[in-house]
Description:
By secondary structure, this protein is α+β, with helices and mostly antiparallel strands. Helix content is 64%, strand content 13%. Helix 2 crosses helix 5, helix 5 packs antiparallel against helix 8 (289-310) and helix 9 (352-418) runs antiparallel to helix 10 (424-458). It is elongated.
Amino acid sequence: MTPLLLLSALMVAPHSTPAPQVGPDEVAVVAAPSATVPTLTLSEAVDALVAHNPDLEAAEAAIDDAEAVAQQALAAVKPILVATGNYTRNNDDATIDLGQALGGISQALAQATGQPLAIDSPGETIIQPLQSLSASGQLQVPLFAAHAYWDIRAARASVRARRGSHQARLVQLRGALTQAAWLTGAAEAMVAVAQHAVDNAEAHWQTSQRLFGAGQATRLSVDQAQLQVVRRQSDLAQARSELGRARLSLGVMLGRDTPVRIDLASARIPDPTPADLDRAVDEAVARRAELRANRADQVAARERIRSARMRLLPTLTGTAVASTSTVAYPTGLNYAWQVGLNLRWTIYDGGVRRATRRRAEAGLRQARAEQRRLELQIGQQVRDATRQLALARDRFTLAEQEVALATQAAASAERSFAQGQAQSLDVLDALDASFQAELRREQARAQLAAAAAELRTAQGLM
């Protein structure tokens, strides 16, 4: 159950009477939690939220993905070393004996010059070996790739954007957790209120029975009082059920499938009401992680545009290859090496570069439009949350006054009934009014805490 759904459930709590007075910065003391429900402080719950919430895990995975993309972009400017091995088995071998040919050439030259001429014979040269083993290593060093530099900058900006999104999600979840914790505290207070109403109804029933035995009340008064007890017991059962649902909702928010109770005994409802609303809006715009992520997205889009333009330039790569074989090469050696430069200039690529630049430009326009939308949205959130907090404080103050008056009226009606000066229905009406007043007070307390958390979330302070 989300905080808003829980609050809606609390708002339609059944009709019925008085519970202990608590101040706006205190939490109503409720029946002791079940031994099977683990209890956390609010700070412990926040730590558990960071460690186990599925939404945050997904956001962290997005950061890892962006960092991996950045590593891939960086690899474009790093050397590449490749080692290969090869075994070859041919159907036949072939050799050539250059000694005879060179001997004939040396004799012809000697006759022509009249001087003896000796040419060293290389012997047989293998043209095709029957089988051979060879190994080689190749080193490629990018010397000039202008677009890669901008790709790296764009990838790093995307990492910053994903981190900003993660922080924004964390702030939202902290705010939602705080609201849910206080709403669950209100559900606990509802249980206390319902239990107190049951006690009051039972006390009135006992008074009715005593007066009936003394001949000072009718049997109808006793039956009405007993019916009130049954109704309040039904209210108590419903309040306990809603409390169980609220605690299970907290557990799900913390990545668990079991209920969780948050102890708010030492917690206080903050008052983040800004002194200057316009300044608070500007500070929220500067502080919110969503806008930091958006600005990083804009940087990434601009770098992609530059990268697309830089792809018009050629790339230059240096290469070095070293190889060895069990069969001598035509040079007569069993090893060889070579170095070179590779210049690649793509004159026409079918429109890929232009399409890439258009996509980057469109992404930049989208990011700028999103920035304007976020700025307007944040301003609206801060102003709405500020008004809602002021309204919640007024309603809580009035609810406390209502509880005080209703409690006094119920006590007066009970005394008058015991003295034979009031009817049983008068007492039941007064008890019901007191019960409803206490329910509204706890609802107002939950709304006050939720409004404070909402404003802090809008300000980026959670």
